[in-house]
Amino acid sequence: MLTIVVSSLSGGQGKTTVSMLLGLLLSHRGHSTLLIDADPQHNLTDWLGLDLEQNSPTLLECIKSSVELEDCIYPLTMNENLFLIPSDDQLDNVQDYLANSGIGAMVLKRRLEPIAKTFEFCVIDAPPQRSQICMTVIGAGNVVVIPAEASVKGYGSLIRTIDLMSNLQGVGATQAQTIGIIPFRDRWIGANQSQESRSAIEGMKEEVGEELVLPSIRESERYKQAINQQKTLSALGYPDLEYPLEVLLEKIELIKQDK
Ligand SMILES: Nc1ncnc2c1ncn2[C@@H]1O[C@H](COP(=O)(O)OP(=O)(O)O)[C@@H](O)[C@H]1O
Ligand SMILES: [Mg+2]
């Protein structure tokens, strides 16, 4: 299993968008894929239409190991290859557990070991804060993808995420490498890119190096349509808009082959 963490230390950076659409694309390509919603705001769980009954096992129980791991994994109706470990409001209660464990960054990695051969890919939607959950998620990852809005706020989010990554790598709390930055909501008016988008993306390239910045996700209502209908952009008839996710997918498939 190759575990991809989608992380960016602010809200509204495209984490849940990228996680969901990447999960759909991977499963459409026939890869057995596990999505993990690691944000207590549980947007991914909601967007995927999973309506949990009270006391259903979620990522909280998975991390605490208080139920069988299999019971935290739910099949999704849109594709037989796609599964979800959901989150709910209670997930924040795991922060103390992780902090007290002394090895917070290693916990989720350990918990997922039994299913490492069951799934080809795992995509984790990380929380927006530099929290214990965020650290255990990055600790579980093989690779990290950072979406960042093509704006001043997005640039700041990228800087904080890179800083966290180098801290965690520096103390051996993760083996994960950052494989790509995806500028999100890149704004164009006709053939002209907005000044803010252009300078934010230029700043990102200067910060991390040009080769790490993937093609941007354009500002577009069609992405919201895809999310609402739980479909890929090409299934909706907009393959051009899917290009950045395809580039990411190819990169991920190559890394998986080499693993
Ligand atoms: N291409 C796009 N253009 C404009 N808005 C988008 C696009 N893709 C997604 N969105 C919307 O942007 C918002 C923020 O994205 P989201 O993935 O939720 O960010 P995060 O998970 O980092 O908080 C969501 O409400 C989503 O519907
Ligand atoms: Mg989100």
UniProtKB/TrEMBL annotation:
<feature type="domain" description="AAA">
    <location>
        <begin position="3"/>
        <end position="166"/>
    </location>
</feature>
<dbReference type="Pfam" id="PF13614">
    <property type="entry name" value="AAA_31"/>
</dbReference>
<dbReference type="InterPro" id="IPR025669">
    <property type="entry name" value="AAA_dom"/>
</dbReference>
<protein>
    <submittedName>
        <fullName>Cobyrinic acid a,c-diamide synthase</fullName>
    </submittedName>
</protein>
<dbReference type="InterPro" id="IPR027417">
    <property type="entry name" value="P-loop_NTPase"/>
</dbReference>
<dbReference type="InterPro" id="IPR050678">
    <property type="entry name" value="DNA_Partitioning_ATPase"/>
</dbReference>
